[in-house]
Write a structure and sequence with these properties.
This protein is an alpha/beta fold. The protein is built from ten helices and seven strands. α2 links the parallel β2 and β3.
Length: 269
């Protein structure tokens, strides 16, 4: 397939598991891809592996100047911007570990998480839109999360930021749809990145609540992002699409009910 031929894409957090898989998928579909990441060495490594149509750029989603520089450099280098995949987020395990409950989370962790996960998305979108309008339109894809659709016992800042991203996605779709710009979000469930592979107990706990035979892979998100970036999804905008193996599609007691049924409990139904 060559659905993205001639298109220029920026993937923020492009050196991570989902970002690098999406970069590879976009390139295989014909796009030129900017791998924008806080860890420039990793971005260079990914770009070197993927070939000459991948460009590594330093990108700090917590710094407006960095965001503007990355977008400006992309447009100056390639003459246009067609796709923005806002995928960067707080991934530092030390910061994530302090993202607890409303009464316990340090305020600096709350502020940092919302700055990167929400303000960073807004600023990237804000700066990309004029270039997309000049190019005749574009596709903006935001990484949300199933944590933005349901509450949890921890990670209040992360979940709140992702819920706000879902709402922000709709506002962009409404305000710029007539300019040819589409805005959609992907809400991943558990995705088996290298970081998640280091948490096998957590992965196995959540596996009980997923209705597909396996947990998600970065390639699953990449495939969905490629579809949303391509012209074949031209009539889809303002949507959040869950890619979670049905994690949020069922009643919360399903895993326990399946256990009862497996034990032959006649009253389980």
């Amino acid at each position: 397939m060559n659905r993205l031929a001639g298109k220029v894409a920026i993937i923020t957090g492009g050196a991570g598991g989902i970002g690098s898989s999406t970069a590879e998928r976009f390139l295989s579909e014909g796009a030129t891809v900017v791998i924008a990441d806080l860890f420039l060495d990793r971005a260079r490594e990914v770009a070197g592996r993927l070939g000459p149509n991948a460009l590594p750029i330093f990108y700090d989603a917590d710094d407006d100047t960095s965001i503007e520089s990355a977008i400006t450099e992309t447009v100056e280098r390639f003459g246009r911007l067609d796709i923005l995949f806002n995928n960067a987020a707080v991934t530092d395990v030390n910061l994530q570990g302090q993202d607890t409950t409303v009464t316990e989370i340090p305020l600096e962790i709350w502020d940092k998480t919302l700055s990167v996960n929400l303000r960073g998305v807004m600023m990237g979108t804000r700066l990309a839109i004029p270039h997309m309008i000049a190019a005749g339109g574009g596709s903006i894809i935001n990484t949300a999360s199933d944590s933005g659709l349901a509450g949890d016992i921890a990670r209040v800042a992360y979940g709140t930021s992702k819920g706000a991203v879902i709402t922000f996605t709709k506002y962009v779709a409404v305000q710029y749809g007539r300019h040819g710009i589409r805005s959609n979000a992907i809400a991943p469930g558990v995705i088996m990145t290298e970081q998640m592979k280091k948490l096998p107990v957590l992965a196995e706990t959540i596996r009980r609540h997923v209705v597909t035979p396996r947990l998600g892979l970065p390639e699953d998100i990449a495939a969905l992002a490629a579809f949303l970036a391509a012209d074949e999804s031209a009539y889809i905008t303002g949507q959040t699409i869950c890619c979670d193996g049905g994690h949020l599609a069922h009643q919360p007691q399903i895993a326990d009910m399946l256990d009862l049924m497996a034990q032959g409990r006649g009253d389980a139904g």
